[in-house]
Specification:
It contains eleven helices and ten strands. By secondary structure, the chain is α+β, with helices and mostly antiparallel strands. Strand 9 and strand 10 form a beta hairpin. The structure holds flavin-adenine dinucleotide.
C-alpha cells in the first residue's frame, strides 16, 4: 500500500498553491467575500493554467488527469476558499457529464468553450419542491420544432449569475411516465430570453452566489439536450457521484485551513500568562480536529483513487461526502470556539470558513440523504 502522491501530483499541487498565492491573496479573498463579488481574473488564471482541462482526456483537448488529480486541485483551491472553488468544481463536474453522455458534435462544441473560459457551467437540479426529492422536478420543456420551450423555476443554483454561465438544467419532458424516464438534461444560457436570475442572501458562499432562476417560455435549441430526451436521470446520477467525491476534497481543504488558523492562533494568543494552546482543553480540541481531518482525508483520497482506477466507488464516495462535510462544519465550529470573539470578527478569516462550511452537510445531497443511501447499500431499504 502506497500513501504517497506521485511526483506529478505534488508538482500539480505546488503549482495551484503558487497560483492562488499570486491571484487570490488573503486580503483579496476577504474583500471579494465582503463585496459578494466573484473575481473573473482569478477564473481566467485557472483557465490559463489549464485547470479546467485537467481531468479530461487528451483526445478532447484535456490534460488527461484523473479523479485524484482533480481532488488535489479542489483541495488546494478550497484551502483558500471553498466558495471560490465552486466556480471551478461545478463547471468541471457539468462538463464531465457532456464527456460521458454528449454526442461527438456536442463535445466538440461545448468542451473547448469551457476549457478556454468562454463559458462556465453551473448545475440546475434543485427547485422549490425538489430538494432531496429530486424526482419531484416541475420545470418543463416542451418540444416545438427544433427548440424546446422551458418553463419553471430552479433554486439554489450556485454561480448562475456569473459571466457567460450556462445552466446545466434538469427538466421534465414527459410528466406521464416515471420521473426516471421523464427527465431531460438541457443546457440553457443564463441570458437566454425569459431567464430571470435573483441572487439570494445566504450565510456563506457569497462570491459565487446562490441564485433563484426563473424560466418563462425560454426557447432552447434541441441540440442542447445531453444524452437524449428522457435520459436526464442517468446523467444526473452519474454526475452526482462525481460531485460528491470532489466536494469531499473541498471539505478537507476548508477543514485544513481551519485547523491551520486555529493552531496558529492557539500558539499566539496569551491568557493567564501562557498561550491558550498550552491549556489542555484547547490542545485536546486541536488534537481531535487534526485526527478527524486526517480520517476525512483518508476516506477522500481513497475514494478518489478508486474512481481514478475506474472502480465502483459509490459506497466510498458517499462515506467520504458524509464524513468530511460533517467534519468540516464541526472543525469550523471548534475553530470559532478556539478563537473566542476574534473567531466571529469579520477582520479574521475563521468566520468566513465557518459560514462557508455550513452548507457542506446540505449541498450536493444532505447528510441524511447520504445515510439513506449508505443504509440502502447495506441492504436496509428506505423509502
Ligand atoms: C449553498 C448551497 C448551494 C447549492 N447549490 C446547488 C446547485 O448549484 N444546484 C442545485 O441544483 N442545487 C443546489 N443546492 C441545493 C441542494 O442540493 C439542496 O439544498 C439539498 O439537496 C437539500 O434539499 P432542500 O434544501 O430542499 O432540503 P429538503 O430536501 O427539504 O430537506 C430538509 C431536511 O429534511 C431532511 N430529509 C429530506 N428527505 C429526507 C429523507 N427521505 N430521510 C431523512 N431526512 C430527509 C433533509 O436531510 C434535511 O435535513 C445548494 C444548496 C445550498 C445550501
Amino acid at each position: 500500500m502506497n500513501f504517497d502522491f506521485t511526483e506529478e501530483q505534488e508538482m500539480l499541487r505546488e503549482s495551484v498553491i503558487k497560483l492562488m498565492a499570486r491571484h487570490a491573496p488573503p486580503e483579496s479573498v476577504r474583500k471579494w467575500d465582503r463585496d459578494r463579488a466573484f473575481p473573473e481574473d482569478l477564473y481566467q488564471a485557472w483557465v490559463e493554467a489549464g485547470l479546467l482541462r485537467l481531468p479530461f482526456p487528451v483526445e478532447v483537448g484535456g490534460l488527461g488527469g484523473d479523479a485524484l488529480d482533480l481532488a488535489l486541485v479542489v483541495y488546494e483551491l478550497s484551502r483558500v476558499s471553498a466558495d471560490l472553488c465552486m466556480a471551478y468544481s461545478g463547471g468541471v463536474f457539468c462538463a464531465l457529464n457532456i464527456l460521458r453522455k454528449g454526442t461527438p458534435e456536442q463535445k466538440a462544441y461545448w468542451l473547448p468553450r469551457l476549457f478556454d473560459g468562454r463559458i462556465k457551467f453551473v448545475i440546475g437540479i434543485s427547485e422549490p419542491d425538489a430538494g432531496s426529492d429530486v424526482g419531484n422536478i416541475h420545470t418543463t420543456a416542451v418540444r416545438d420544432g427544433d427548440h424546446y420551450i422551458v418553463n419553471g423555476q430552479k433554486l439554489w443554483t450556485t454561480a448562475a449569475g456569473l459571466k457567460n454561465a450556462v445552466i446545466c438544467a434538469y427538466v421534465k419532458t414527459d410528466k406521464a411516465v416515471h420521473y426516471r424516464k421523464g427527465l431531460t438534461h438541457i443546457l440553457i444560457d443564463n441570458d437566454a430570453p425569459g431567464v430571470e436570475l435573483r441572487k439570494l442572501g445566504m450565510l456563506g458562499r457569497r462570491c459565487v452566489g446562490t441564485y433563484e432562476v426563473f424560466l418563462r417560455d425560454t426557447p432552447v435549441a434541441a441540440d442542447r439536450v445531453i444524452g437524449g430526451e428522457g435520459a436526464g436521470w442517468d446523467c444526473l446520477m452519474g454526475g452526482l457521484q462525481f460531485e460528491r467525491a470532489v466536494s469531499a476534497a473541498g471539505n478537507c481543504g476548508g477543514a485544513q485551513a481551519v485547523l491551520d488558523l486555529a493552531v496558529k492562533y492557539a500558539g499566539e494568543r496569551v491568557q493567564f500568562g501562557q498561550p491558550i494552546g498550552s491549556f489542555q482543553a484547547i490542545g485536546h480540541m486541536l488534537a481531535d480536529m487534526q485526527s478527524e481531518l486526517e480520517a476525512g482525508k483518508m476516506l477522500t483520497w481513497r475514494a478518489a483513487w478508486l474512481a481514478a482506477q475506474k472502480r465502483d466507488t459509490l459506497r466510498e464516495i458517499t462515506q467520504a461526502k458524509l464524513y468530511t462535510s460533517e467534519m468540516y462544519a464541526k472543525l469550523a465550529n471548534m475553530g470559532v470556539q478556539i478563537m473566542g470573539g476574534y473567531g466571529l470578527n469579520e477582520e479574521f478569516d475563521m468566520q468566513r470558513y465557518f459560514r462557508d462550511s455550513r452548507s457542506a452537510t446540505i449541498a450536493a445531497g444532505t447528510s441524511q440523504a447520504q445515510r439513506n443511501l449508505l443504509a440502502n447499500l447495506m441492504g436496509l431499504k428506505s423509502r
